[in-house]
Amino acid sequence: MKTVGHRKPHTITLHARAGALEEFGRFNDAFHSLARTRILLPKGVFRLSHEEADRQMTEGIARGMALLAAEHNQGAPDATRQGKK
């Protein structure tokens, strides 16, 4: 197994810290931006190596981009669809 990074989890306290709030805000924004994208990831829990997870993510992005391109091409005029302008 690989160890990537050495981030220590924040302790739970009664008072919020600015750094922890900023980190959560970035995580929350990134998480919610995934819902607006066309990345197709399988649902469920998987035990993957880093390489397998990267491959699965890359394939999901590629499938999403292919679907998006197909949607754009369906609405395009015939000349544009064939690469002619």
Task: Report what the structure shows.
- Helix content is 56%, strand content 0%.
- The chain has three helices and no strands.
- The N and C termini lie far apart (52 Å).
Largest sheet geometry: none
Total E-strand runs = 0
Class by helix and strand content?
Answer: mainly alpha
Q: Tell me what portion of residues adopts beta-strand conformation.
A: under 5%
Multimeric organization: single chain
Order of helices and strands: HHH
Relevant terms:
56% helix; mainly alpha; flat; 85 residues
How do you describe this structure in short?
The chain has helices at residues 18-35, 50-75, 78-81. With 85 residues, the protein is mainly alpha-helical.
Topology:
Blueprint: H1 18-35, H2 50-75, H3 78-81
